[in-house]
From TrEMBL, chain A:
Name of this chain's protein: Peptide ABC transporter ATP-binding protein
Presence of keyword Chloroplast: no
InterPro entries per record: AAA+_ATPase (IPR003593), ABC_transp_ATP-bind (IPR050319), ABC_transporter-like_ATP-bd (IPR003439), ABC_transporter-like_CS (IPR017871), Oligopep_ABC_C (IPR013563), P-loop_NTPase (IPR027417)
PANTHER family, alphabetized: D,D-DIPEPTIDE TRANSPORT ATP-BINDING PROTEIN DDPF-RELATED, TRANSPORT ATP-BINDING PROTEIN
Organism listed in the record: Mesorhizobium hawassense
Domain ABC transporter: from-to ranges: 7-244
Mode of membrane association: Peripheral membrane protein
From TrEMBL, chain B:
Name listed for the protein in its UniProt record: Peptide ABC transporter ATP-binding protein
NCBIfam families named among the record's database cross-references: oligo_HPY
Domain of life: Bacteria
PANTHER family (UniProt xref): DIPEPTIDE TRANSPORT ATP-BINDING PROTEIN DPPD, OLIGOPEPTIDE TRANSPORT ATP-BINDING PROTEIN APPD
Annotated SUPFAM superfamilies: P-loop containing nucleoside triphosphate hydrolases
Keyword ATP-binding among UniProt keywords: yes
Biological process, per Gene Ontology: peptide transport; transmembrane transport
Family per record: Belongs to the ABC transporter superfamily.
Keyword tags: ATP-binding, Cell membrane, Membrane, Nucleotide-binding, Transport
Pfam families according to UniProt: ABC_tran, oligo_HPY
Sequence ranges assigned to domain ABC transporter in this UniProt record: 25-269
UniProtKB/TrEMBL annotation, chain C:
Origin species: Mesorhizobium hawassense
Any one Gene Ontology cellular component term annotated for this protein: plasma membrane
Name of the featured protein: ABC transporter permease
Compartments where located: Cell membrane
Domain ABC transmembrane type-1 per the UniProt entry, residue ranges: 95-299
Keywords annotated in UniProt: Cell membrane, Membrane, Transmembrane, Transmembrane helix, Transport
Entry superkingdom: Bacteria
The keyword Membrane is annotated on this UniProt entry: yes
Family: Belongs to the binding-protein-dependent transport system permease family.
Length: 311, 335, 320
C-alpha cells in the first residue's frame, strides 16, 4: 500500500477547553474501503473527523495523510495539502452551501485555487456521475431541490478528486424512503472513484449495509474496531453488543435479546477512571474501574479494548 | 433497568367484537392556512379507535401529518390550523380535547431538551402538571406522587432530582421525567410524538422499554408516533400508516408487517435497512415525494410514486376497506 | 459564586479607575489650567503655582489618579475650589435627588412597560400594541430634554398642574413626589415603550417554545402559562437590556434635572462646570460613575438569580 492510499491517525488527543473530546484514538482510512464510525452523541466522532481534516487543533498524536503528518505542518501548508486529498461533507450537507454563490462558481472555485485546469469538463463529468443536469451550474442553491442540493454538496467535495471522503451523519434527518437513494449514490461513487470513506452515522443498520470496516467510539476512545461483518456477527465489546442489540428490527426472527444499559453516557469532562464504560457495563469487574484497557487483537480483522471481552 | 415496572407479554389479540374503544377519532380533517392565506389539507377523514392499554403506532414519512394528528387529539393544534370536521370521542361521548388536557389526555414530546421549562425545577413542573387532574390535592401530596413516579421510571434519588433544573439532567433522563409526568396524570390517552427520535440508540432502547412497561401502570391507551418502523413493530399493538394526510393502511402489528397490503406500506418496509443484510444489492428507496398538499390529486394520493398505479388509481381515490381480519387498506390493487 | 463576586468587584474597580483617569486627563485637556482660571488673569505666577500645588495639579497624572482614588476610598472627594469646603458633603446632598429621579424612572419604566408589553403580546395588533410600538419607535430616540421642555410647557406653564422648578426640598414627602412627576415622566417615557416592546417580543418568542406547549398539554390555565411559565423566561432578556438602560436612565436624569432645576448631581456638575470648579465636577462625575457601576452589578446579580443556567455557571467558576 502506498502512502497516498492511507490516512493514519495515531493516538489522537483533542480538547475543547476542559473536555477531552478525543482521548487517544487511532484510526486508519484506506482508499477503496468505507469505514464506519459509530457511538453515542458526544462521544467525539465529529471532533475526530475534524481533526483528520485539520479543522481543529490536535493536542497530541499524529495524522499522516499521504505520507505527511498534519501536526508538523503550518496552517497554510495544511490548506494546500489536504483539500486535494481529503474532503468532508457535513450533517445536512445542503445547508452548508453558501446561498449567494452559483453552483457553477461553487464547484469551480476549489479547482482554481488548486490550479487545476479544464474546469468545465471536470465539472460536467462530475455532475453527470451524480445524475445532475449541467444547467444547474447557473443556479443558486435556493433554486434547486433539497435532494439536488445534497448531491451538489457531494459534487463540491469531490471536485478536486480527493482520495478520501469524510461524511458526518450525511443521512441524519432523511426519511427512509429517500435515504436508500442517497446511500446508493454514495456507494457507487465510492466504488467508481476508489474512495476511502469515513462514514459517521448513528443508524447501525445503515452502517452495516454500507461499510467494510467499523470503529465504535465511547467517550473519546475507540473501544472496538474491525471488519464490519465480524463486529456485527460477534461483537466483542459489551458496549458494542448493547449498541447492536438496541437497534430495532421489523422482523421478529432477527431481533436480538436486548441489552438495556443502565444510566446515561458519563460526562466527557470527568470521564470514569479505568475503562470509561465500566459505570454502565454489565460485565464490569473491579479491575475495570482501575486499569484502562488498550485495543488488543481478537482475530486478524478485529480488535477490542476490554478486559473481559465477549468471547 | 432499575425500574420497578416490568414488561410482560402482550395480551392475545382480541377480535373486533371483543374490543370496546376507549377513545376514538371520527372522520377528522384538518387544514393549515399558509402565509399567503391559502389552505392546504393535512389530515383527511381520519378514523381511529384505541383500546384500553393498547399502544397504537402511527408511521409515515415526515410531512405526512403524524404530529398534526397527535396535536389534534390533544387539542394542541397551532393557531393557523383549521379543524374542518370530525370528533374526538372518549368513552362514547364527544369531547373537547382542550378541556381534557392534563386530565384524560397527556403528552410526551419529541425533543426532551426543550419540552421542559428551563428555569423551573423538575419538581415544580411535575406538581403543576398534576394540578388539573388532582385539583384538591396538597402540593406536598403531589410532590410525593412525583417522587414515587420518578422511581418507577427508573430515576434514582428522586427527591434530589425534583429540585434539579432540566439542564442538570441528560436527554434520556429528561424524557423519563416527561413520561413520569404523563403517567402521573393517569390519562385515558397518552400521546407520544416521536419520543425517542432525539435520543441515542442505547437510550432509545431504555425509553422504549419504559413505554412497554408503562402498560402496568397505565390503563389508558397510547398513541405512539414514530418514523421508526422497527421500533413501532416491536412496541405497538396496532399500526396506522399515514400518507399525505390520509390513512392508507391500518392493522394489528403482526399482520401489518407480515402481510402489508398497501404498496406504500410495502415500499416503506422494503426501504428499512437490515443489519444482517450485507448484500451488495442497491438499497431500496421510494422515488418521488409527497404530493403538493394544496392541490391534491383526484385519485390515490400515492399514485404518483406507486409501481402498481393504473388508470382508476389516478382518477378515483380508493376507499379504506377491509383487507383482512381487523385490517384496512386504501388501495385499488392491494398486494 | 465567591470567585464570581471577586471578578465582579475587580471589574467594578477597573471601571472606576478608568473613569477617574479619563476625568483627570480631561481636566488637563481643558484650555487654561484650572488654577489660573480660578484665580483670574491678574494672579501672580507664585499664587497660581501655590494653588496648583495645593490642588495637586503639579503631580504627574497617574499620581493624581491614585491620590483621588485613595482619598475617595476614605470618603474625601476633594475640596471645593471656590468655597474651600470639602466636596463630599455637597455631592452627598445632591445624590438623593438624583437617585430619587433615576429610581423613580426605573420603577415607572418597568412598572408600566412590563404589563403593557404583556398585554401587547396577548393581543398583537391591538391598541396597546400599536401605542407602545409608536412610543418605542418614535420616542426612545427623542432627547429627554426635548420631552422635558415640552412637558414643562404643557403641564407646568400652561396647565399649572405641576411645579415648574426645584425638587421640593425642605417640603413634605407629597410635595417631593409632586416635584418628581414630570422629571420621571421625561426620563422614562421612551423607556416605557421600549421595555414594552422588548417584553412583547421576547414573550411572543417564548410562547412559541416547546415547554409552553408542554404546560398547555397538561391543562395549565392561560394565566398560569402566561404569568408563571412564559414571563419567567421572557423577562430574562429584558433584564439584560435594563443593564444598558440604567446607564441611559442615569444619564438622562442628570440632564433632565438641570432643566427642572432639581438640586441633584446634574445641576451640581452643570454649575460647577460653568464656574470651572473642577474638583466638584470630578467628584460629581465620579459619583455618577459609581452609581452606574453599582446598578449594573445589581442587574447582573438579578440576571443570575433569574436564570439557573447562568447561576450554575457562576457556581462552577467558584468551584474551580
Ligand atoms: N466547539 C466545541 N467547543 C466545546 N466543546 C465541544 C465542541 N465541539 C464538541 N465539543 C464537545 O466535545 C465532545 C465530543 O463532541 P463531538 O465530537 O461533536 O461528538 P459526536 O460527533 O460524537 O456527537 C462533546 O462533549 C462536546 O460537547
Ligand atoms: N404550524 C404549521 N403551519 C403550517 N403548516 C404546517 C404546520 N405544522 C405542520 N404543517 C404542515 O403540515 C404537514 C404535516 O406536518 P406534520 O403533522 O408535522 O407531519 P409529520 O409529523 O408527519 O412530519 C406538513 O406539510 C407540514 O409542512
Ligand atoms: S390505489 Fe393504486 S396508486 Fe394507490 S397505492 Fe394502490 S395501486 Fe398504488
Ligand atoms: Mg457529531
Ligand atoms: Mg412530526
Amino acid at each position: 500500500m502506498t502512502d497516498a492510499q492511507v490516512i493514519k491517525a495515531r493516538g489522537l488527543v483533542v480538547r475543547h477547553g476542559l473536555v477531552v473530546a478525543v482521548a487517544g484514538a487511532s484510526l486508519d482510512l484506506v482508499a477503496g474501503t468505507t469505514t464506519g464510525l459509530v457511538g453515542e452523541s458526544g462521544s467525539g466522532k465529529t471532533t475526530l473527523a475534524r481533526a483528520i481534516m485539520g479543522l481543529t487543533p490536535i493536542k497530541s498524536g499524529s495524522v499522516v495523510v499521504d505520507g505527511r503528518d498534519l501536526v508538523t505542518m503550518t496552517a497554510p501548508e495544511r490548506r494546500r495539502w489536504l483539500p486535494p486529498r481529503v474532503q468532508m461533507i457535513f450533517q445536512d450537507p445542503a445547508a452548508s452551501l453558501s446561498p449567494r454563490v452559483r453552483i457553477g462558481q461553487l464547484l469551480a472555485e476549489p479547482l482554481r485555487v488548486h490550479g487545476m485546469l479544464d474546469e468545465t469538463s471536470r465539472i460536467r463529468q462530475l455532475l453527470e456521475a451524480l445524475g445532475l443536469p449541467f444547467d444547474l451550474t447557473g443556479k443558486y442553491p435556493h433554486q434547486i431541490s433539497g435532494g439536488q442540493a445534497r448531491r451538489v454538496a457531494i459534487a463540491r467535495a469531490l471536485v478536486l478528486h480527493p482520495r478520501f471522503l469524510i461524511a458526518d451523519e450525511p443521512t441524519a434527518g432523511l426519511d427512509v424512503s429517500v435515504q436508500g437513494d442517497f446511500l446508493n449514490l454514495m456507494s457507487s461513487l465510492q466504488k467508481t472513484l476508489g474512495l476511502g470513506t469515513l462514514f459517521i452515522s448513528h443508524n447501525l443498520n445503515v452502517v452495516a449495509r454500507t461499510t467494510n470496516r467499523l470503529a465504535v467510539m465511547y467517550l473519546g476512545k475507540i473501544v472496538e474496531e474491525g471488519a464490519t461483518r465480524s463486529i456485527f456477527a460477534k461483537p466483542s465489546h459489551p458496549y458494542t453488543a448493547a449498541l447492536l442489540s438496541a437497534t430495532s428490527e421489523i422482523d421478529p426472527l432477527r431481533r436480538k435479546p436486548r441489552i438495556i444499559l443502565k444510566g446515561d453516557v458519563a460526562s466527557q469532562s470527568g470521564p470514569p477512571s479505568g475503562c470509561r464504560f465500566h459505570t454502565r457495563c454489565p460485565r464490569a469487574m473491579p479491575r475495570c474501574g482501575r486499569d484502562a484497557p488498550e485495543l488488543s487483537t481478537v482475530d486478524a480483522v478485529h480488535r477490542v479494548a476490554c478486559h473481559f471481552p465477549i468471547a | 433497568m432499575s425500574s420497578s415496572l416490568k414488561s410482560r407479554d402482550p395480551e392475545p389479540a382480541k377480535t373486533d367484537a371483543q374490543r370496546s374503544a376507549l377513545i376514538e377519532v371520527r372522520d377528522l380533517s384538518v387544514s393549515f392556512v399558509d402565509k399567503h392565506g391559502e389552505r392546504f389539507s393535512v389530515l383527511r377523514n381520519i378514523d381511529l379507535s384505541l383500546q384500553p392499554k393498547a399502544i397504537m403506532g402511527v408511521v409515515g414519512e415526515s410531512g405526512s401529518g403524524k404530529s398534526t394528528l397527535a396535536n389534534a387529539m390533544m387539542g394542541l393544534l397551532p393557531k393557523n390550523a383549521v379543524k374542518e370536521k370530525g370528533d374526538i370521542i372518549l368513552k362514547g361521548k364527544v369531547v373537547d380535547p382542550i378541556a381534557l388536557r392534563g386530565r384524560a389526555l397527556a403528552m410526551v414530546f419529541q425533543d426532551p431538551m426543550n419540552a421542559l421549562h428551563p428555569v423551573m425545577t423538575i419538581g415544580t413542573q411535575m406538581v403543576d402538571a398534576q394540578r388539573a387532574r388532582f385539583p384538591n390535592h396538597l402540593i406536598r401530596e403531589l410532590r410525593k406522587r412525583a417522587a414515587e413516579m420518578l422511581t418507577k421510571v427508573g430515576i434514582a434519588d428522586p427527591e434530589k432530582r425534583l429540585s434539579c433544573y432540566p439542564h442538570e439532567l441528560s436527554g434520556g433522563m429528561r424524557q423519563r421525567v416527561m413520561i413520569a409526568m404523563a403517567l402521573l396524570v393517569e390519562p385515558d390517552l397518552l400521546v407520544a410524538d416521536e419520543p425517542t427520535t432525539a435520543l441515542d440508540a442505547t437510550i432509545e432502547a431504555q425509553i422504549a422499554e419504559l413505554f412497554r412497561a408503562s402498560r402496568d401502570t397505565l390503563d389508558g391507551a397510547t398513541l405512539f408516533v414514530s418514523h421508526s418502523l422497527g421500533l413501532v413493530s416491536e412496541l405497538c399493538d396496532e399500526v396506522v400508516v399515514l400518507y399525505a394526510g390520509a390513512i392508507v393502511e391500518r392493522a394489528d402489528v403482526a399482520e401489518l408487517f407480515n402481510a402489508p397490503r398497501h404498496p406504500y406500506t410495502r415500499a416503506l418496509i422494503a426501504c428499512e435497512p437490515r443489519s444482517d443484510d450485507q448484500s451488495d444489492e442497491a438499497m431500496v428507496s421510494i422515488p418521488g415525494g409527497l404530493p403538493d398538499l394544496s392541490s391534491l390529486p383526484a385519485g390515490c394520493v400515492f399514485a404518483s410514486r406507486c409501481l402498481h398505479a393504473s388508470q382508476i388509481c389516478r382518477q378515483i381515490a380508493p376507499p379504506l376497506v377491509t383487507a383482512g381480519q381487523n385490517h384496512l387498506a386504501a388501495c385499488w390493487h392491494p398486494q | 459564586m465567591f470567585r464570581y463576586m471577586l471578578w465582579q468587584i475587580a471589574s467594578l474597580i477597573a471601571v472606576l479607575v478608568g473613569a477617574v483617569a479619563v476625568l483627570v486627563m480631561l481636566t488637563d485637556l481643558i484650555p487654561g489650567d484650572a488654577a489660573s482660571v480660578l484665580l483670574g488673569s491678574r494672579a501672580t505666577p507664585d499664587a497660581v503655582s501655590a494653588l496648583r500645588h495645593s490642588m495637586g495639579l503639579d503631580l504627574p497624572a497617574y499620581q493624581r489618579v491614585a491620590r483621588f482614588l485613595w482619598n475617595a476610598a476614605q470618603g474625601n472627594l476633594g475640596t471645593d475650589a471656590i468655597s474651600g469646603h470639602p466636596v463630599t458633603g455637597t455631592v452627598l446632598r445632591a445624590v438623593p435627588n438624583t437617585l430619587m429621579l433615576a429610581f423613580g424612572a426605573i420603577v415607572v419604566s418597568i412598572g408600566l412597560g412590563l404589563p403593557l408589553g404583556v398585554h401587547a403580546a396577548e393581543k398583537p395588533g391591538g391598541v396597546v400594541d400599536r401605542c407602545t410600538a409608536f412610543i418605542a419607535v418614535g420616542l426612545i430616540s427623542t432627547p429627554s430634554f426635548v420631552i422635558a421642555i415640552l412637558l414643562l410647557l404643557v403641564f407646568s406653564v400652561r396647565l399649572g398642574w405641576t411645579p415648574v422648578l426645584g425638587g421640593g426640598e425642605g417640603e413634605g414627602f407629597l410635595s417631593r413626589l409632586h416635584h418628581l412627576i414630570l422629571p420621571v415622566v421625561a426620563v422614562s417615557f421612551g423607556w416605557i415603550g421600549y421595555i414594552a416592546r422588548q417584553v412583547r417580543a421576547s414573550l411572543l418568542d417564548v410562547l412559541g417554545q416547546a415547554y409552553i406547549r408542554t404546560a398547555r398539554a397538561y391543562g395549565l390555565s392561560n394565566r398560569t402559562v402566561l404569568y408563571k411559565y412564559a414571563l419567567k423566561v421572557a423577562i430574562i432578556p429584558v433584564v439584560s437590556i435594563l443593564g444598558v438602560g440604567i446607564g441611559d436612565l442615569i444619564g438622562k436624569s442628570v440632564f433632565v434635572e438641570t432643566i427642572f432645576g432639581r438640586p441633584g448631581l446634574g445641576a451640581l456638575i452643570n454649575s460647577a462646570l460653568r464656574d470651572r470648579n473642577y474638583p466638584v465636577v470630578q467628584a460629581g462625575v465620579f459619583v455618577v460613575v459609581v452609581l452606574f457601576v453599582v446598578t449594573n452589578a445589581v442587574v447582573d446579580l438579578i440576571y443570575a438569580w433569574l436564570d439557573p443556567r447562568i447561576r450554575e455557571r457562576f457556581f462552577r467558576h467558584g468551584d474551580q
